Amino acid sequence: MKKRYLVTAALPYANGPLHIGHLAGAYLPADIYVRYLRLMGKDVVFVCGSDEHGAAITVKARKEGVTPREIVDKYNAILKDTFEKIGIAFDMYHRTSEPIHHETSQGFFRRLNEKGEFIEETTEQYYDEVANQFLADRYIIGTCPVCSNPDAYGDQCEKCGTTLSPTELISPRSTLSGSTPVKRPTQHWFLRLDQHENWLRQWINTGELEGVALHNPNEWKNHVLGQCNSWLEQGLQPRAMTRDLDWGVDVPQELPGSAGKKLYVWLDAPIGYISATRQWALDHGRDWEPYWKSEDTALIHFIGKDNIVFHCLIFPAILKAHGEYILPVNVPANQFMNLEGRKISTSRNWAVWVHEYCQELPGQEDALRYNMVKNMPEQRDSEFTWKGFQETTNTELVNNLANFVNRVLVLTQKYYEDGCAPQFDAARPFKSGWGVETEGNYAAELRRIREHLLEMGREIERFNFREALRLLMEVSSAGNALLQFNEPWRTVKEDPETVRTVLHLGLQYVAALSVAARPFLPFSAERLRKMLALPPLEDQGDLEAMLAVLEKGEPLLPAGHLLGVAGHLFSRIPDEVIAAQMAKLESADAQNAAAAAAAAPKTINYAPMKDIIQFDDFAKMDIRTGKILTAEKMEKSKKLLKLQVDLGFEQRTILSGIAEHFTPEEVLGRQVVVLANLAPRPMMGVESQGMILMAEDQDGKLSFVSPQEGWPSGFGVR
RNA sequence: GGCGCGAUAGCUCAGCUGGUUAGAGCGUGCGAUUCAUAAUCGCAAGGUCGCGAGUUCAAGUCUCGCUCGCGCUACCA
Question: What's the CA–C1' distance between A440 and B18, in Å?
Answer without folding.
Answer: 39
